[in-house]
């Protein structure tokens, strides 16, 4: 059986400019060239060759729950939580307790928040 690595995450978004600005503001992601097409889809680097593709869909209606999410890890959750507070972005634990993180059974600290389109993002310290 071949092995696999994560290549990219693709999200449909109502307003691609607003979404790019959000991900750049929150995570300081660098925009990279969309080498696949001349479309208005915009790509951001997640580091280590991984990418976030934001695909414009103006009539989008996202219906999802917290169990459908992607997770990013950092070694400095305290600084990132302060950054979210400065940006006035609310976060919660798995049970939706506002402005609270959670420590999993394996010792990993995590919390969740949503992007402008309603997608859930987990941030943890699994590094």
UniProtKB/TrEMBL annotation:
> Which InterPro entries does the entry link to?
Fosfomycin_Res_Enzymes (IPR051332), Glyas_Bleomycin-R_OHBP_Dase (IPR029068), Glyas_Fos-R_dOase_dom (IPR004360), VOC_core (IPR037523)
Q: Name one Pfam family in it.
A: Glyoxalase
Query: SUPFAM superfamilies recorded for this chain?
Result: Glyoxalase/Bleomycin resistance protein/Dihydroxybiphenyl dioxygenase
The organism's superkingdom is given as Bacteria
Q: Which residues form the VOC domain?
A: 5-126
Instruction: Give the protein name, as stated in the record.
Output: VOC family protein
Q: Which organism is it from?
A: Polaribacter haliotis
